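User: Could you go from structure to sequence for me? I need the amino acid at each position, not a summary. Structure tokens:
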């Protein structure tokens, strides 16, 4: 049974999901909220904007179309202004809850009857506060509500201005074009599981920080981390969301209420609404008790061997699959930018064959072999993404795009950053240690970048015609391991004078000045790309300190009858 697209995901009874639905809903809610900016319309518009922006956040990780970022940015200011207004609405609700709770606790039998209720206690007026008039006339709750009412009017004006600036015409255009792009990416894909794992790991780090520091900022950051993880699951992993939705929503809501209580207490303090210790103590005790309940509720579910963290992690990619999915994500991203991505895949294959062949002759790269191979693979796959901006100077544009793209989980950041530089030098000026892109690197990193660029330039030249004529290469003049002879002390001494690479290749069975012979299947010395290959092998010859020769690969014809015998 085919998996439905993002826009086809619906509930059985009512269509309440999909990018197209939520983008249309934003336009509808804009009309509703403009009437009075009441709590419910504000909340509904924020939910619609949040769904659109969270969908864009997940999709832009796989699809580099700039409209995703533009759509997120277009809704950001309106979302933030509505958020400030929503915070005031929430605080007003909390003040009412607090007053009921404290009033019930105080009661008619609680203490001295001559002491007025908290809501009617007259505080001492302040001299310079902008809200001193409200505070002087009323108790803490009434004073704070009046202050919030004044701020609410200010925030409504800010929200109204943001709503007027919101370009609905452009939003309608995106509501047609972006869902069409989203329909090509299927929910439930392992690529989204990889993205969810990224969010899980980010949130898990914030969880540890919150438990360690227990600060308001740390708990708020954890809430944001869980929210970002929840949105990926909610939007793109329907099977997992069906199982996890209650726990994810509960944890986000619990931490959201912790944040609301922190904001309420900080606002009460900064507004100086308390002028007697009794009211201040009662407010603080109630807020702290409610906050502690929610922290304990979070800890009960999120700590221990069977915590929700472990449940969620068990269903996400494991081990080698993480790096494999990171590579698939990079390929998908490149495929949307590179006008001829099959060429880049062929170049990647040829580059890795050459790299592995050099390792077989005991050539030592300047960085760890696995790390260098990862950088070379990424550079080869992404070297032409700059062509999305045009042919001219595309190698420089590729450098910027790869750096901005970031590092998918499973790839080391150092490998990806090195890959960006290697891709930069797949054509154009030869890399040197004095080049502005390399001069700030450490010597070994400079050397590694130049080595990998040399391999990539030759691999790219082997498919210069973008026709896949050269399909396979191997280094031919390398003896088998059993035929290699250990060099004598005299040979060791002589070869050290000729440089480390010459010595290593001699140990592998090659004479110090012997050319490295590369046999290429499909290669012809008279072919259209032969001149390009001849020019681009120069950097590799410089790196290896020896000539590099290419020749056609001989096909071995096997006698089928003798093989069967």
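Assistant: Here is the amino acid at each position, in order:
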């Amino acid at each position: 049974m085919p998996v439905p697209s993002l826009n086809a995901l619906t509930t059985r009874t009512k269509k309440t999901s999909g990018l197209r639905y939520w983008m249309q809903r934003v336009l509808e809610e804009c009309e509703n909220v403009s009437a009075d900016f009441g709590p419910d319309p504000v909340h509904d518009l924020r939910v619609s904007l949040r769904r659109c922006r969270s969908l864009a956040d997940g999709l832009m990780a796989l699809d580099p179309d700039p409209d995703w970022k533009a759509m997120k940015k277009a809704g950001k200011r309106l979302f933030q202004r509505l958020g400030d207004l929503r915070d005031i609405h929430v605080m007003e609700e909390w003040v009412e809850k607090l007053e009921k709770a404290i009033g019930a606790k105080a009661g008619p039998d609680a203490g001295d009857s001559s002491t007025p209720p908290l809501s009617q206690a007259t505080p001492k007026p302040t001299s310079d506060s902008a809200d001193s008039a409200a505070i002087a006339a009323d108790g803490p709750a009434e004073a704070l509500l009046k202050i919030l009412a004044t701020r609410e009017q200010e925030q409504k004006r800010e929200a109204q201005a943001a709503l007027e600036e919101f370009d609905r015409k452009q939003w309608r255009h995106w509501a047609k074009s972006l869902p069409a792009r989203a329909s090509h990416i299927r929910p439930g894909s392992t690529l989204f599981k990889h993205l969810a794992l990224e969010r899980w790991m980010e949130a898990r780090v914030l969880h540890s920080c919150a438990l360690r520091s227990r600060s308001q900022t740390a708990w708020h950051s954890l809430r944001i981390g869980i929210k970002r993880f929840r949105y990926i699951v909610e939007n793109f992993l329907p099977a997992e969301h069906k199982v996890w939705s209650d726990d994810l929503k509960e944890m986000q809501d619990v931490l959201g209420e912790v944040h609301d209580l922190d904001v309420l207490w900080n606002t009460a303090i900064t507004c100086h609404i308390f002028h007697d210790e009794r009211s201040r103590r009662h407010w603080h005790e109630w807020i702290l008790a409610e906050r502690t309940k929610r922290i304990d509720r979070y800890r009960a579910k999120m700590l221990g061997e069977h915590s929700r963290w472990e449940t969620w992690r068990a269903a996400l990619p494991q081990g080698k699959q993480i790096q494999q999915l990171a590579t698939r994500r990079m390929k998908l991203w490149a495929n949307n930018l590179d006008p001829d991505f099959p060429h880049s895949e062929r170049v990647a294959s040829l580059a890795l064959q050459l790299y592995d062949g050099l390792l077989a002759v005991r050539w030592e790269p300047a960085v760890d072999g696995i790390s260098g191979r990862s950088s070379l693979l990424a550079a080869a796959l992404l070297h032409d993404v700059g062509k999305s901006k045009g042919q001219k100077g595309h190698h420089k544009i590729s450098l910027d795009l790869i750096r901005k793209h970031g590092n998918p989980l499973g790839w080391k950041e150092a490998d990806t950053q090195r890959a960006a530089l290697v891709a930069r030098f797949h054509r154009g000026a030869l890399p040197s240690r004095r080049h502005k892109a390399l001069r700030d690197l450490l010597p070994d990193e400079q050397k590694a970048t130049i080595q990998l660029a040399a391999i990539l330039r030759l691999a790219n030249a082997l498919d210069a015609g973008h026709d896949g004529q050269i399909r396979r290469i191997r280094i031919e003049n390398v003896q088998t391991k059993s035929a290699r002879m250990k060099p004598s002390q005299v040979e060791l001494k002589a070869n050290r004078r000729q440089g480390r690479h010459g010595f290593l290749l001699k140990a592998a069975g090659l004479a110090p000045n012997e050319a490295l012979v590369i046999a290429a299947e499909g290669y012809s010395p008279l072919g259209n790309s032969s001149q390009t290959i001849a020019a681009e092998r120069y950097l590799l010859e410089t790196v290896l300190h020896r000539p590099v020769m290419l020749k056609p690969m001989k096909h071995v014809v096997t006698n089928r009858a003798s093989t069967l015998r």
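One structural detail worth keeping in mind: The radius of gyration is 32 Å.
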